[in-house]
Structure formats: C-alpha cells, structure tokens
Amino acid sequence: MLKATLEKWDRLTPHQRQSVDFTLPKWVITQTLVTICEENGLTMKHITELEMMHVIENPNQGTWYSFQLLDPEDDAHSVELMLFKEQFKTHLRELMRNVSIKIKKHTDEAVWIRIAWGSGFSRPNHLKPTYVVHYLQSPYVFVRNLTSKLKPLLMQSLTLSTRHQAIKDANLSGPKLMAIRDLLMKQYQQSFPTNDASPLAKENQPGPIVNEQAEARASRRRMASEAFGKGAVPQLQSAVYKLETKYRDPSNRTMTERDEPFRCVVKYSSSNILESFRHCASAGIASTPVTPLLSSILLKGRNYFVITDNAPAAASQTRQADL
C-alpha cells in the first residue's frame, strides 16, 4: 500500500522509489524514507501530505466515532468547500493557538481534515493527529483519535463553520469508516417490512410436515430480511448494549432494595455483526420476529444502546473519555 501511495505522492524520483526495498521490516523502510526526504529537503508539510494520502486511501484503521449536527441555520445548505475551510480554520485557531490544520476534498465529495494539536507552550504534535471526515450538505461527522480535552474545541468549530446550532454523539462507532458512513447516510440496500408472506411453491411437496417446515424456513428468512435487508449490509464489527435497571426478585431483598440500579454490558462481536444476526435469524438460531434491540442497529443507525426501566431502547448520550 505504501508503494502505491509514494507513487501518487510524487515527491520522490523514480530512482529513489525503486531504491526502497518494501520486503524489509517496517522500521528499515521508514529510516530509508527519512533519509531520502532529508536529502530532498522535504519539510513537515510534505510529510503530512504523504500521511494524509495514506489515511484517505486506507481509512479502516483505528476507531471512528460518528456525530450528528443539529438545528441547521437558514444558510447551512449553501456552505461550500472554500467557505467551510476558511471558517473552520479561523474558528479553531481562535480557540487553540498552536494548531496545524490541513483540509482536502476527496473524490467521493468527503472533506478530510487533519489536525495536529499543540498548546500555548508547545508546537503541534504531528505524531498523534486527529482526523475528521465530513460530507458537506449532510449532518454527519466522523472523527478518529480525539481526546476529551480537545473534543469541545473541535465540536464548536464544526458547528460554527457548518452553520448549525449544536452537535451530538450519534452512538455509532467502528474501525471501518465506509461501513458507519453507509449506515448513517442510508447508502445500502434497504428492506421494508410487509405483512404478506412470500408465496411458496406447492409442487412436489411430499406431505404436510415437509410443507410446514418449508413455510417456517421461508418465514424466518422473510423476517430476517425485513430486519436486516436482503443485500449487502454495512460491515460493522460490534454492537454494545448497556443495562441500567432495578433488580427485581422477591426472594432476594438485598438486591431488590438497592438504590443503585443493576448494571451490566453485553457486547456482540463479529467480522460483520449485521450479517451474523441475519444468518442467526434465518437459520432459527435466534428467535423471530427479530427483537427491536437488534433491528434498531439499522433502523436507528447506532451500535451503542442503553436499556433502562423508563426507555427500553434509549440511546446513551455519554461516551468514553477518550475517542
């Protein structure tokens, strides 16, 4: 992947690119590239270009967190790239003195932002940049590598530069940026529920028992498709459910009379959690109709839920301290 990125970067001569042995260990390749860059007199600006190109071409690294912009102003739909770039940089630099910002528009209309944070007494740290992806004219923002200390600064700059009043956590995260983007922006084949069962071919049915089994299988497949769709689904890797409710058991007064709620967390993990849920429902491993707790991942575009006594499927508005 680095070899292809270096060719697009076009800061090294063909001879210099050919001199890099990509079969060697990573640290050796890194040292070779550092030496070549120093010989060419390249600066930090050039190196951040290379890193940004690599991240854009290979976005499925780290964990991306999603946010939703709220209450757009009347002119929010008219914000275009040049205006957004100018205002975002202006607002963020008013809040943080030493900060390095690089903004680039990708071919799929996504605006990529690379932010290296400093402080009042230190230069920007380019080794731990924050990446932000935003599609103009959409209310969604995707962020990677952002600490709780810097989060308010970024959120304020985003709301002001996009002409919105507020921003909230969308409670959807994962390592695959395109998957969470497709889920939030509904860029996948959706399925709509129907009360009519699919007709079954009745020819060559040996008896009522076989017919009943076939109807049950068809019903499971139909309900699984209604809950998770028929085609390819966004490739999420996890779904988290946090339980906060009162413990109820007449035989256990110690637990029942506690003021603190009973808490536990259930996390499902898979290479493709939605496809796994759909298969379990189709195969009869999971009961059908599919519980709203599972189908809400697609319906609400979230994979983090808090279950309480008053709101059975309410999404939590709190996240971890560090994103």
In short:
The chain has 323 residues and is α+β, with helices and mostly antiparallel strands.
**What class, by secondary structure content?**
alpha+beta
Instruction: Give the oligomer, counting copies of the same chain as homo and different chains as hetero.
Output: single chain
- Span of the ends, CA to CA: 26 Å
The percentage helix is 25-40%
Number of strands: 9
Radius of gyration: 25 Å
- Overall spatial form: globular
Largest sheet, order of strands side by side? 2-3-4-5-1-6
Which descriptors would you attach to this protein?
alpha+beta; 323 residues; three-stranded mixed β-sheet
Describe the structure.
- This protein has 323 residues and is of the alpha+beta class.
- The chain is 37% helix and 21% strand.
- It is built from 11 helices and 9 strands.
- The protein has helices spanning 2-9, 14-18, 26-39, 44-57, 81-95, 151-161, 177-184, 208-228, 253-256, 273-283, 292-300; strands at residues 64-72, 99-105, 110-117, 130-135, 140-144, 164-174, 238-245, 262-269, 304-308.
- The strands form 2 sheets. A 6-stranded antiparallel sheet has the order 2-3-4-5-1-6. Strands 8-7-9 form a 3-stranded mixed sheet, with no helix packed on it.
- Strand 4 (130-135) and strand 5 (140-144) form a beta hairpin.
- It starts with a helix and ends in a 15-residue tail after the last strand.
- Residues 193-203 and 311-323 have low confidence and may be disordered.
